[in-house]
Amino acid sequence: SSGINAEYGQPMIVVFNGKEIFAKFARLKLRDVSYGEQAGFKIEGVGSSCESRFFVMSNTSPLNAHFPTVQSRMWFYDGIREMMKRLRVSPYFSLDPSRGDSKV
């Protein structure tokens, strides 16, 4: 199962906190995963019905020796912001009001 819930729609952007978790999700080898937007990645078995875009950032654990400071990780947040601008995604969203969901 992809974990994408069609009942509530699809997220425009899915951000993964680390290469390992994305590699498991995507069923890829860790060496085949790079940081940043995963351009062209499709979820196996879902085909063209999934419009979500995927972004892999560094694991934010303080134990991460590759990106030990907030400053060294800022380019990930900049990349997500640029992706949101390009896709015209708001950081605020609302759930389906017809289902009685509240707005966030």
Explain what this protein looks like in three dimensions.
With 104 residues, the protein is of the alpha+beta class. The protein is built from 2 helices and 3 strands. Strands 1-3-2 form a 3-stranded mixed β-sheet. The longest helix is centred in the C-terminal third of the chain and has 18 residues, at 70-87. The radius of gyration is 15 Å and the shape is globular. Residues 99-104 have low confidence and may be disordered.
Rg over CA atoms, rounded to whole Å, is 15 Å
> How big a fraction of the residues is strand?
5-15%
Number of strands: 3
Q: How would a crystallographer describe the biggest sheet?
A: 3 strands, mixed
The number of helices is 2
Residues in helix, %: 25-40%
Shape: globular
**Average pLDDT for all residues:** 77
| Helix/strand structural class | alpha+beta
Q: How do the strands of the widest beta sheet line up side by side?
A: 1-3-2
Identify low-pLDDT runs. 99-104
Q: Measure the end-to-end span.
A: 27 Å
SSE succession = EHEEH
Topology:
Elements: E1 13-17, H1 19-26, E2 36-37, E3 53-57, H2 70-87
Parallel strand pairs: 1-3
Antiparallel strand pairs: 2-3
Key words describing this protein structure:
single chain; 104 residues; alpha+beta; three-stranded mixed β-sheet; disordered C terminus
